Amino acid sequence: MFVETLPIAFDIEVKGFKQRSVDTPNNEIVIKGPHEAFVENIRTNTSLIRRIVNNENLIIENLEVGNITKTKCAVCYIKNIANDDLVGEVKYRLNNLEVDSLLSAGELEQLIADSNILGIPEMISTERPDKVSKYLLNGRVVIIVNGTPYGVIVPAVLIDFLASPEDTNLKVNFANFLRGLRVLATFITLLLPGIYVAITSFHQEILPTGLLYSILASRENVPFPIIVEILIMEISFELIREAGLRVPSPIGPTIGIVGALVLGQAAVSAGIVSPILIIIVAITGIASFAIPDFSFGFHIRYFRFVFVLLGFMAGFLGISLGLFIYISVLCSLRSFGVSYMTPLAPSSNVDGNGYFLPPIWKREYRASYVAPKKAQKQEKFSMKWKFNSNLYHK
What we know:
Number of helices: 11
Shape: globular
Order of helices and strands: HEEHHEHEEHHHHHHEEH
Number of domains: 3
Number of strands: 7
Largest sheet: 5 strands, antiparallel
Strand content: 5-15%
Radius of gyration: 25 Å
Helix content: 40-55%
Distance between the termini: 56 Å
């Protein structure tokens, strides 16, 4: 490159590499929202973010992780919104990783997490630039890893994993209805099989007589105890789910549907399991698909086996003790200095930053638990066209 008035020329490296073009998201599908996802190239990903957050305060700092691979990582934040201590903590952890290689964002999550206890996810992993931009504008920090089509958002709290990118694009009553369904789906996935085992093993008296007789009649020819019966079906369902993911995509859904129907019908006909157990397993499986975050959904699916065993050993007492320990662990976790259960415990639904969304014209403040530099994100009267100008300025 020659520049007029300069007696020198610049030799600029312009080589490129083959890369995948920007495509639609595969794992975070929305109906009413953008349809573009990150790719494996870090520069393409940062450009997607900058195209949405078109502001000079968006800072993208490049770091290298891995003594051999020298993997490029980009720390993204908005300078006049994100807390300096949070940004400094993220960069400190990245700069103090002594590993030979870093090949994915999933590896990075495990290396910089506060705690890996119980496999509870403490960072949000997303393939959507619009979701990343939304969290950036609310004071979070995002890490992009070269070679991975995902962005890592920190810090994260429990309610973030039950939120969908589509929620902010829907009217508030529809979005809150869907959020309520996701909470219900989480409890069903985690507790329904364990509650069924506890009732049939210890607490038959709480069932109506007709339903109890129906359950006993359906299990009359089943040779296995209830714990073996439910473990067979739950493990079989997980095998079908995993097989549907690993086989070629054109026949993946077919394996899932045909495998579930044929296996369930054959198991009932052979007297291996009872029909009502098929219903319980099917409802649990459908509810698990309603959890929007893959990592959190995997965690809930894993721990439902723990509650099945607790329900078999001690009934409702075992499930209650398990829930007490589980919630205590959740309350003790911190993600980059933020309590994992905020704003539920400690309880602080200040300025409408709880799980359920207020109307969009009432979302005046950013979440206080990330301590943003700029707390207010819109005026009290944001719809100026609707109010008298004198009232607005007052």
